[in-house]
Amino acid sequence: MKKFKHFFLLGFLLLSFQHRTMAGHIWGAEITYEHLYGLVYRISVTAYVDHNVANGNIDWPQLDSVHVGIYMANFQRDSFADIENDIRINYYSHEITFWTPGNYPIYFVWPNRHGNILNIPNSFFTPFSIRAELPIDPDCPNTSVKFADKPIFYSQKNKIYTHQPSILNPDHDSLSFELDTCLGEYSTTIPGAYIPSGFTIDPVSGEISSGGNPDSTGWYTLAVKISEWKNGSFHGSVLRDFLVWVHADTFNAYGFIPPVLQLDSGGNYFQTLNPGDSLSMQIQYVDSSTFPDLNAFGEAFSVGNPTSVSINSGTANTASAQLTWIPDATHSRPYPYIFTFRGSNDIQQTDLTVLVYVNGPKPDSCYSSLIGIEEFGLDKELIVYPNPVTEIFTISGNQNPLDKIELFNLIGESMAVPINCQLQTANCQVLAPGIYFVKVRGEKEERVAKFVKQ
C-alpha cells in the first residue's frame, strides 16, 4: 500500500506544472474518494482529456500535483479508455493513510483547459482545477459520490436543455447540488469566468436546466458542487467540471413525454412508496429526426433487491424504458432515490429526472441505509477492544453473563466467526477489513457496539 508521507513543497514545482501549455487539454474531471478501513482512504481522479495524436497531444501516465490537505502526492494512472471524439478517460488513484481526523481539501491543477470556452477568457491558456472536501471522522467515515457518465454534453442553441450529473451515491447519503465557479491557477476562481446566463440547478434533484439559453453556439463550462449530509451534518463534497457544446439550432423536435407523476415545489417529478409497494414506470423519449438512444442511471440499480429497467430504442423516432422496483424496509430513508433517464442522438441529449421516496424506519446513514442499524441502538457504554482489531477482541462494559454474541457487516449479514460467550471474546481474523457491529444479548437486554477490522 502507498503511504502518505509528510514533506515540504517547493513553490517552483507547482508553478512549473501550472504554466506548462503543452497539448493535451482537459475536457472535464472529478476527484472522488472511498473509505477503506480505519483512517485509510483511496483517492481517485478521473480526467477526460483530448487525445488526438495527430495534433500532438501527449499522454499523462501520472499526475504530479494532487494536493491533500497541506501535502502533495503523485498519482499513478491505473487504466484508461478511449471514447468518441478523441477523448481519453484517464483513471488515477492513490491510497492514503491519514494520521489524524480532520477536514482535508483535495485538489489538482492541469496545465490548460479546452480551447475556445465562451464563459472563460483565454481558456486554452488557463489552468484547470477541480476540488473535493474530505472530512475524516472515525465514528462516521464517508465515501464520496461517483458518476455513471462522462461530463461532456451536447445541446442546441435556443432550446431548453436539462441534465442530471448521473450521480451514484454509495453511502446513500442526503445530497444537495449547486452551480459553482470554475477553478484555475492555485485552485482559485478564474478572473472573468462566469456561470452562463440562464443555467440553473435544482438543489434536491441536481437537474441542470439551460432555460433555453445560451443564444450563441460554442463551448461552455459548468462546475457542479455535490455535498453530502449524514443526519443533517456536512460530510464531504465533490466539485465536477463539465463541458457543454451548444450547436446550431435545427427544426427537429425532441424531448420526453411527461410521465404521469406528481410534481414537487421545485418542479421535480416524484413518487412516494411504502416498503412492498410495486413501482412501475414507463418513460418515452421522442426525436423527430433519428433513431434516438435512451439510457437510465441511478443508485437504486445497485442496491439489494435492485431496480430493473428494460429499454427499447428500436423505432425510428421513439425510445422507451420500462422501470420496475419493489423496495423493502431496508430501502427506507428520508431523502429520495434519484433516477436519471437520458435521451440522445448524434448531436444532442437531454435528461428527465424522477425522485422516488421510500417511507419507513430511518436508518443511521453513518453506517448504511440498507440495514436497520439504528434499530439496534448503538450503546456507548459497550466497548470493544482493541479497536481497530486484527484478530481477537474483548467486550467490555457488560456486567452480566451473555447468552449470545453476533457480528454483522454493513449490509446486515451475520458473520460466522469463533465466539466465546463466557470470556466475552470473538476471533475476527477471517473477516475482511472494514466496519462491523457486535450485538450482545444478556438475560434482559440487547446491546450493540461498532468496531473496525484491520
What does this structure look like?
- This protein is an all-beta fold and 454 residues long.
- It has three domains: 239 residues, Immunoglobulins (Immunoglobulin-like, Sandwich); 81 residues; 77 residues, Immunoglobulin-like.
- 3% of the residues lie in helices and 46% in strands.
- The chain is built from two helices and 32 strands.
- Strands 1, 2, 3, 4, 5, 6, 7, 9, 12, 15 and 16 form an eleven-stranded mixed sheet that branches. The chain has a five-stranded mixed sheet with strand order 18-19-25-24-21, with no helix packed on it. Strands 17-20-23-22 form a four-stranded antiparallel sheet, with no helix packed on it.
- A hairpin with a 5-residue loop joins strand 22 and strand 23.
- It is globular.
- The N terminus is likely disordered.
Task: Provide a quick synopsis of the model.
This protein has 454 residues and is an all-beta fold. The protein folds into three domains: 11-249, Sandwich (Immunoglobulin-like), CATH 2.60.40; 254-334; 377-453, Immunoglobulin-like (Sandwich), CATH 2.60.40.
Name its key features:
454 residues, mainly beta, Immunoglobulin-like, 3 domains, 32 strands, 3% helix, globular, disordered N terminus
Write the layout of secondary structure elements.
Elements: H1 11-18, E1 26-37, E2 40-50, E3 62-68, E4 71-83, E5 87-97, E6 102-110, E7 128-136, E8 146-147, E9 152-156, E10 162-163, E11 167-168, E12 174-180, E13 200-201, E14 208-209, E15 218-230, E16 233-247, E17 254-256, E18 262-263, E19 269-273, E20 279-287, E21 293-297, E22 308-312, E23 318-325, E24 337-344, E25 349-358, H2 373-376, E26 383-385, E27 392-396, E28 404-408, E29 419-420, E30 425-427, E31 434-441, E32 446-453
Parallel strand pairs: 9-16, 19-25
Antiparallel strand pairs: 1-2, 2-5, 3-4, 3-6, 4-5, 6-7, 7-16, 8-11, 10-14, 12-15, 13-14, 15-16, 17-20, 18-19, 20-23, 21-24, 22-23, 24-25, 26-27, 27-30, 28-31, 29-30, 31-32
